[in-house]
């Protein structure tokens, strides 16, 4: 079943994201692709929330084992500093360093995946 192409005014609401603009309005698979698009965004939000609350787990979920171990060491150091009331401020600083590390690693991981997708798409077009 093909739906009529929407008018210019009704299609303006979809112009907030480049990936949504790229979707074909007459494609039957459009709802599935929209769900996949928003699911990817949800996974990203969950990863960044895990980066704040449990950074080593966020790194394990994206497959960065070595960096997760390093970040776990940072978390243990932060906990040791937090237990000693005298160095509580250092614990907060070490925790912030760990969170920033995880956010940068997740961002780099997403950039690598985007680059791989672009490379795969260009290789498919050449074939």
Describe the structure.
Helix content is 76%, strand content 0%. α4 packs antiparallel against α5 and α4 (55-61) runs parallel beside α6. Residues 8-25 have low confidence and may be disordered. It is mainly α and 127 residues long. It is built from 6 helices and no strands. The protein has helices at 8-11, 18-21, 30-53, 55-61, 65-83, 88-126. It is elongated.
Number of strands: 0
Count of DSSP H/I helices? 6
Overall geometry: elongated
- Sketch the topology as an H/E string, one letter per element: HHHHHH
Strand content: under 5%
Structural class: mainly alpha
Overall pLDDT metric: 77
List keywords for this structure.
127 residues; mainly alpha; 6 helices; elongated
Topology record:
Blueprint: H1 8-11, H2 18-21, H3 30-53, H4 55-61, H5 65-83, H6 88-126
Helix pairs in contact: 3-4, 3-6, 4-5, 4-6, 5-6
Quick summary:
By secondary structure, the chain is mainly alpha-helical. It has six helices and no strands.
């Amino acid at each position: 079943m093909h739906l009529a192409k929407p008018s210019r005014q009704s299609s303006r609401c979809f112009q907030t994201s480049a990936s949504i603009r790229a979707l074909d309005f007459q494609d039957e698979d459009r709802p599935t692709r929209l769900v996949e698009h928003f699911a990817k965004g949800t996974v990203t939000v969950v990863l960044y929330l895990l980066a704040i609350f449990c950074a080593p787990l966020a790194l394990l979920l994206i497959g960065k084992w070595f960096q997760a171990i390093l970040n776990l060491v940072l978390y243990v150091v932060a906990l040791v500093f937090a237990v000693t009331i005298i160095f509580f401020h250092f614990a907060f600083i070490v925790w912030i360093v760990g969170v920033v590390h995880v956010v940068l690693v997740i961002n780099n991981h997403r950039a690598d995946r985007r680059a791989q997708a672009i490379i795969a798409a260009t290789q498919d077009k050449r074939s």
